[in-house]
Specification:
Length: 304
């Protein structure tokens, strides 16, 4: 077993120990007379109308006999209803009665309140980081395939880049509008002065919607500059950022650049980790006041 795999296993197990201790008190919100599994079943039936018992077994990883007894109990209490499934008359399509839906809404509201107590104490930026991290955990462990494509920019994409960059850094880092102005200037200069032989922009698109972008521009005859890497929060954890950087490096190398540089910020830990894994090395750091905040601006570079 590799050291990397051992570390990943240890971290997953540590999280499994941490999560019930930190968040497992949610079970205390379950009213008397309901088990956690019953609440899970009610939740599935609230989300998936017409689901069969066999589908519930697979989705919740439950024993068929146990689920049958549980459903019978919920049906007796007037919370669950059955009717012949449209696709197979031998199976029953399950659903919630009005009473069952009322009970679930109460349970759901209690769970939301309890989670809100834990998450609400975090800053807005920390809440976004938490949501992104949990989404990435779910994506990685589910083994999701990357179903995105890279393409050249189209009319409207440049405005989207300015908007997304400005909104992201204001939300996650509290940067003011001077950063958005900088992005707008970079984009406008690219549109006015773009040399297709030595410069390029890529848009990552998923389900017809832009979710990422990156630029390669000329710094000097031997050096390319990597600019404005962006991956939307809804698409993180799929390797899009790594792919964008790899495409940029490949293009710069193919058109004859010998070196690539980039500017980043010490606070952007995920971006810096990505740059390091794609061969960039940290060169210098400068403390300055930018975008309404004290910043540690960094210069990174790599040979091509």
């Amino acid at each position: 077993m590799s050291q990397l795999l051992s570390t990943a296993i240890a971290q997953v197990r540590a999280f499994n120990r941490f999560h019930p201790h930190h968040m497992g008190a949610f079970e205390a919100d379950i009213p008397e007379g309901f088990s956690l599994t019953e609440v899970r079943v009610l939740g599935e039936l609230a989300e998936r109308r017409g689901v069969t018992a066999a589908e519930l077994c697979r989705g919740l990883d439950l024993n068929a006999g146990y689920l049958s007894r549980l459903l019978s109990s919920l049906e007796t209490r007037g919370l669950v209803t059955r009717q012949a499934a449209a696709a197979d008359g031998r199976a029953s399509a399950l659903g919630l009665t009005d009473a069952g839906r009322d009970v679930f809404q109460q349970l759901d509201a209690a769970a939301n309140a309890r989670v809100g107590e834990a998450v609400g104490a975090l800053s807005g930026a920390a809440q976004q980081r938490l949501a992104d991290a949990l989404r990435e955990v779910q994506t990685l462990l589910a083994g999701a395939r990357a179903d995105y494509a890279l393409r050249d920019p189209r009319p409207g994409d440049m405005g989207w880049i300015v908007h997304k960059q400005g909104a992201l850094y204001a939300r996650e880092y509290g940067w003011n509008a001077t950063f958005e102005a900088l992005v707008a200037d970079i984009v406008a200069r690219y549109i006015r002065e773009h040399d297709p032989q030595t410069e390029r922009c890529w848009i990552a698109e998923q389900d017809g919607t832009p979710v990422g972008s990156i630029f390669v521009v000329r710094h000097d005859a031997q050096t390319a500059k990597l600019r404005l890497l962006y991956v939307d929060a809804t698409a993180r954890g799929q390797g899009i950022g790594h792919r964008l950087v790899a495409e940029a490096i490949g293009f710069a190398r193919a058109v004859g650049y010998k070196r690539m540089v980039l500017w980043t910020n010490a606070a952007l830990t995920d971006a810096r980790r990505l740059f390091e894994t794609t061969g960039f090395e940290f060169l210098t750091e400068q403390q300055e006041q930018l975008f309404g905040k004290p910043q540690a601006s960094q210069l990174w570079a790599r040979d091509l």
